[in-house]
Design a protein that fits this description.
It holds the Pfam family Asparaginase_C. By secondary structure, the chain is α/β, with parallel strands linked by helices. Helices cover about 30% and strands about 20% of the residues. It has a six-stranded mixed sheet with strand order 4-1-5-6-7-8, with helices on both faces. The chain has a four-stranded parallel sheet with strand order 11-12-13-14, with helices on both faces. Strands 2-3 form a two-stranded antiparallel sheet.
Length: about 325
């Protein structure tokens, strides 16, 4: 929990550094100079040493892809292991900020430095922007001392990296940690196969909410497209159509063919407890894995980290059921 002495600021794009273009706001380079100019004008600016690196290309976070997550992971590891940085601040757009925070939590398991993500709802320099408050507030967290692992800082709040969600599309307090029931056995240790040094590869994943009218044909379309992992957002405590045998058969057949299928609750404050209702038990019996009270962001990021490490579906399910970094417990 000591103060960070040599911080990397990893600028990925996003609203915080956007400038106006004829087509609208777009990510812009040169944020290093803008950040230094602003801090030089503040009497209360944090005094820690920092270096800014821009990822290429800079992106609007609405365009976030798995390749961008892997590029962030690689840049963070290089900064720590080769450049001697003892902390990393990631500047990121808000649309997928919670997804990236959760995913990096699993991609960086075992990395012994603090990683903090922040962004803003308005660009730096815009009237009444929250950008500099969020950025300076994040710097102060490093100055005061942060524990290792991935966290998110926004609007004066420090949030768990794989528990946060974006709740509001316009308000400055856009992010929160929902009160979801969490219960899970903590993994005794992180295996080498899931350590941050483990190379990852892209994975075909899909997220599908259960809704009235969901039928087997929709599921077969996903599975026929080569989906390796499906995150199924169920009703309430993990229920869904239990009287549609074709749908149940489609889920069971996909699991038998090696597709990982995870169930979470689509309720903002909910958790999967399959045995509460018969409708949940029937879904479980097709081969679904319970995500407990995990958020969509955490469940998707964890599936990517497990399957992307090359684990087969049985091994991935075993590790998914365990708490790796506070996502389930």
């Amino acid at each position: 929990m000591g103060a960070v002495k040599n911080l990397l600021v990893l600028y990925t794009g996003g609203t915080i550094g956007m400038l106006q273009t004829p087509a609208g706001l777009a990510p812009a380079g040169g944020f290093d100079a803008r950040m230094r100019d602003h801090l030089a004008q503040r009497n209360d600016a944090p005094t820690l040493q920092w270096t800014l690196r821009e990822l290429n290309p800079l992106i609007d976070s609405a365009n976030m892809q798995q390749a961008n997550w892997l590029a962030m992971r690689d840049a963070i590891i290089e900064a720590v292991e080769h450049d001697g940085h003892d902390g990393v601040l990631v500047l990121h757009g808000t649309d997928t900020l919670a997804y990236s925070a959760a995913t990096l939590s699993f991609l960086l398991l075992g990395l012994q430095v603090p990683v903090l993500l922040t962004g803003s709802m308005l660009p730096a320099g815009a009237p009444d922007s929250d950008a500099w408050d969020n950025l300076v507030g994040a710097l102060r967290q490093f100055e005061q001392g942060l524990g290792n692992g991935v966290q998110l800082y926004f609007h004066g709040r420090l949030l768990h990296g794989c528990r946060a969600s974006k709740l509001r599309s316009e308000a400055f307090d856009a992010f929160t940690v929902m009160e979801r029931h969490r219960e899970g056995e903590r993994a005794a240790q992180i295996p080498a196969s899931l350590d941050y040094r483990q190379v990852r590869q892209a994975v075909k994943l899909a997220v599908l909410p259960v809704f009235p009218g969901l039928c087997a044909d929709y599921l077969r379309g996903l599975f026929d497209a080569g989906v390796q992992g499906l995150l199924l957002e169920c009703y309430g405590s993990g229920t869904g159509p239990s009287d549609d045998q074709a749908l149940l058969d489609a889920l069971h057949g996909a699991r038998q063919s090696g597709v990982m299928i995870v169930a979470i609750s689509q309720c903002p404050e909910g958790a999967v407890v399959f045995d509460t209702y018969a409708a949940g038990s029937k879904l479980r019996d097709t081969g679904l894995v319970s995500g407990g009270g995990m958020t969509r962001e955490a469940a998707l990021g964890k599936m990517f980290a497990l399957l992307g490490a090359g684990l087969d579906v049985e091994a991935a399910e075993r590790w998914f059921a365990l708490d790796l970094c506070g996502e389930r417990a």
